[in-house]
Amino acid sequence: MKDFFKYVLATVVGLVLTSIIMFALGAMSIVGMIASGEATKSIDHNSVLVLKLDGMMSEQSEDNFMNKINGIEGLSFENTMQAIQRAAANEDVAGIYIEAGQFGADLAQAEELHAELEKFRKTGKWIIAYGEDYNVLSYYLASTANKVYMNPQGTINWIGLGGEAMYIKNTLAKFGIKYVPVKVGKYKSAVERYTADEMSAADREQTERYLKGWWNTIVKGVSANRHISAADLNKYADDMIALGEPKQFVSTKMVDKLLYTDEVKPAVKKFMKLDEDDDINQISVDDILNTKIQEDGDEIAVYYAFGNIVNETPTEGMFNGTCIAAKDVCRDLQEIADDDHIKAVVLRINSGGGSAYASEQIWHQVKKLREKKPVVVSMSGAAASGGYYISAPANYIIADNTTITGSIGIYGLYRDMSELYTKKLGINFSQVGTNRNSVLGSQEYGFTPEQFTALQNNVNRGYELFKSRVAEGRKLTAAQVENIAQGRVWLGEDAKKIGLIDEIGGLNRAIAKAASLAKCKEYYAETWGETPSLLEQLLANSTDMDTYLDTKLKNTLGALYEPVMMMNEYEQMDKVQARMPYIIRIK
What we know:
six-stranded parallel beta sheet, alpha/beta
């Protein structure tokens, strides 16, 4: 019996050791395979950069090994912009091939990529685009190409911009649930989906303005690139050319030729003056980013802040990588302030807002950072409500024409389920407390008039504080801020006229301005923050798996991803929010 246990124990120990060794070897193999793919590349002469414009674009790249193992390519503004710039500067890159599809992004991101593609062509290099089904954004970018091709059975979803907002007040009422709004500003319409039957006049006014502004930007760009009048492009949209014969896109000059997929490569070879048997040297975004570049001069740090503004990063769940966590951001900005190698900072912000408390904490840290070195804000798709709050103390603010900003206002939203509990379910409550308002927001009675007044006063104080932060940062009077506040959303081009921003431009312009403020003669931009090593990611907890699942969910849900995320986060949200009415993505 003694020998039996001895042999069993030896077997168990052997199995454990074997498992550890196999895991280590497997980990090393995975790390080796990924690392070999990330090694510094040399680009062959006459190479073509392939840009795959399909799926939702994030602001910054999300580099984790789970995505790489499962073949998920991250589509990010940061990487795509840098790839185009490096391709333009690399003498071995002859051109860009755009594979266009159902591309989703903030229009401000697309606007900057559009400008960068036009700069690429001005170097004398070429762009060719092909799509089986273009949506409006992928076509907007493809229009920069020398030649635009489309599948003979494909289409361009050229019908204009529009959508529907969903209002669920009456649905909730059927279950005995209602939301109690406490807000300041007639344009602060974030609460309306829960408290109204339809879009308010104020919300319709601001929404129509920026949708028209977005559409005009797209039409203007396509008109200039394809030499089609804006009037004709609008007529094609009104006539629903998207549902017509694909040949119409050739006759209207929106595309140059209809080609099946297998006919594209020969067409590209002909354009490149290659023989039929010659190979096309294709390189990816990752390939061009893995080439060596010379970095001389002073460092300008680019700090990306995108997502909902919250107090701290959630420790569980699939949404832990999509927020601006005040505790993390404040720590990072303090480290940047203390780093003498960094001469100036560009805050790249893409946020519709979030917690008013968290926004105030970040505002404070940005102000402290400005005391040590210049701070320039580059607004992406949105820097509104809390996103504008954290931008206000910067030395200089730059936004794209189509950026959504402003929305200076505060609101609170409280769920009242008293009717559900007491009338629908027959639940009774008994209260006990030491003071008159010890039970705030009773499950049985909701809010008393006294409690509601106190809540409103609390939101009013938050609004006054927000306005004072804007007045201080933008050097405006309280009356001037009030005239442009009231929770109103502004387009970047309109925000420039009323003093909310300083200049129209993109990330590159913001970097140049930061260098100028810091009096840097030679400089380079560096994204701040270190990506964990592959081994660190492999040995980490479930974060990478959560991020991988989050990416899969994002790709599956598309434009529905962020509304689902907001619903998931509701219970953890601060009840006082500086947030945009809703999230709009062009798809």
